[in-house]
Amino acid sequence: MSAEVLRLENAQKSFGSVRALKRASFSLHEGEVVALLGDNGAGKSTLIKSISGVHPLDSGQIYVRGAPATIRSARDAIELGIETIHQDTSLAPDLSIARNLFLGREPVKLSFLGVFAPLDRAELRRAASALLRRVGIAKKLDADAPVRTLSGGERQSIAISRAMQFAAKLIILDEPTNNLGLEETHSVLRFIKEMREAGHCVLFITHNIHHVFAVADRIIVMRRGEVTAEFVVADADLLSVESAITGADVATLMREGKSH
Ligand SMILES: Nc1ncnc2c1ncn2[C@@H]1O[C@H](COP(=O)(O)OP(=O)(O)O)[C@@H](O)[C@H]1O
Ligand SMILES: [Mg+2]
């Protein structure tokens, strides 16, 4: 198997009396797409928020490329090469597409006195246009348009482009195809495959099992705050995965005709 990008051991996280994560453990490797599945409330979002620095763990250990890592802020995660696209997308609706693509990391031009470091607008536009061309939406989108004028799918594409731009080792997507149209969904799935081809590791959360079978190499299933099952997609069947997610046995699922 290729090099380990991230490993989580015995992750625990509570919100008051709610134990969102209990002893969750898993590992991720270079060049693989991993689907994180589980019912609502299973702890999927909490798990990725702990890796991305939104909700630091109460206890447990994160290893990044084999070395123990402390992730207590979004900046910590980004510095370790982890880019996350949250469910509630983290774009600034009133800023332009170009600004959003480089939010917090805009190219700067050193002024004569070196006092001001204003945004290098020309460079920003150029880089944004190049990036939009690369993700195949340049024809439709103007880098100067504010993000609030975009559809859900276009926003998702911008967020993904941003992650690609910074060549993160690990890209995490929380329900990236939620509320997207068919064409937009396909474009997101295509991005995920492209990122794998470029050697990134992609971890994505979804409720659409067909998307999992379309792009994922591996499946991690969570139930009640723990990682309870893992599958290699090539060897997995739909009913076994559904059974792992819901806790119902395969025979019951077959009787109920839930195999879509
Ligand atoms: N910020 C929070 N404050 C309080 N409880 C939370 C918070 N985030 C998540 N939880 C709780 O933690 C549990 C796991 O939630 P979550 O990680 O969002 O699950 P999933 O993404 O699998 O649906 C749920 O019971 C949820 O209500
Ligand atoms: Mg969630």
Can you give a write-up of this model?
- This protein is of the alpha/beta class and 260 residues long.
- It has a domain at 4-90 and 167-255: Rossmann fold (3-Layer(aba) Sandwich), CATH 3.40.50.300.
- It has helices at 44-52, 74-79, 97-101, 121-134, 152-165, 182-197, 209-215, 238-246, 250-255; strands at 4-15, 18-29, 33-37, 59-64, 67-69, 82-85, 170-174, 201-205, 218-223, 226-232.
- A hairpin with a 2-residue loop joins strand 9 (218-223) and strand 10.
- Helix 5 packs parallel to helix 6 (182-197).
- It is globular and about 60 Å long.
- The mean pLDDT is 85.
- The structure holds adenosine-5'-diphosphate and magnesium ion.
- Adenosine-5'-diphosphate (ADP) binds next to strand 2 and helix 1.
Salient structural properties:
4-stranded antiparallel sheet; 9 helices; binds adenosine-5'-diphosphate; about 35% helix; Rossmann fold; alpha/beta; binds magnesium ion
Uncertain stretches: none
Binned, the helix content reads 25-40%
* Estimated radius of gyration: 19 Å
Give the tally of β-strands.
10
Strand order in the sheet with the most strands: 6-7-8-3-9-10
Oligomer: single chain
Span between termini: 33 Å
Number of helices: 9
Bound molecules: adenosine-5'-diphosphate, magnesium ion
Could you state the CATH homologous superfamily of the domain at 4-90 and 167-255? P-loop containing nucleotide triphosphate hydrolases
Q: Average pLDDT across residues?
A: 85
Percentage of residues in strands: 25-35%
Helix and strand element order: EEEHEEHEHHHEHEHEEHH
| Structural class by sheet pairing and helices | alpha/beta
Which descriptor suits the 3D outline? globular
